Amino acid sequence: xxxxxxxxxxxxxxxxxxxxxxxxxxxxxxxxxxxxxxxxxxxxxxxxxxxxxxxxxxxxxxxxxxxxxxxxxxxxxxxxxxxxxxxxxxxxxxxxxxxxxxxxxxxxxxxxxxxxxxxxxxxxxxxxxxxxxxxxxxxxxxxxxxxxxxxxxxxxxxxxxxxxxxxxxxxxxxxxxxxxxxxxxxxxxxxxxxxxxxxxxxxxxxxxxxxxxxxxxxxxxxxxxxxxxxxxxxxxxxxxxxxxxxxxxxxxxxxxxxxxxxxxxxxxxxxxxxxxxxxxxxxxxxxxxxxxxxxx
Length: 296
Fold this sequence. Notes:
mainly alpha; 16 helices
């Protein structure tokens, strides 16, 4: 709302800021619950015909946990957005936090120093004990409490932020100065063309993405020394698993997992890597013309 210039008009209504933020959070919770409900419905409908025999309680539990997991990172995004007013910063920070938490939980068995961070990772709270087999684990309560704490932080930050709507009406008499619009001379060459200005406008988003991608790769690469130190166990795992299981995760040559190139490509370039690249291209790059049209 703030980024698109409609927040001032919305705040001019009799709604309080607290009411506004809580309404937005409630809508986010409903939309996220709808996605989890679709997943639960598909699994319930397929349960008996496909012979899965999963208890209904387990299906409901894991989808409630997935909803709470989504709400934790939605809370991160709304908190950052309430503090900065920038959707790019909110989206990038929440995505970075999600990737970091995921890898902390994923690699905790391989690194002793990740034991403590993994205990406060939302992914550990969510799937530490498989909710399908052990419904309603205590980790769900931590997800709920974290979501509530982030929601309270969002309300507190937004209710105290200076949106500075008065600057548009009384720019000369306002006590709060406007931020300088001075353009760094180093950007002059970029601002001389449409392509250059587009790069300049998206530079901060790229920096956030670059930090997240670099962290993701470093954590992935750092796991190889531990994996290679127990080559016999790794080869035993490869031989024990059916080839079809590896194919589901995009690995057509399971034996290559025992090599550095095979391990890195399977982790960084066959699974998460393509997803990250697609999210970056679709979310941050491909809609540039459409965004110009939408914004007038």
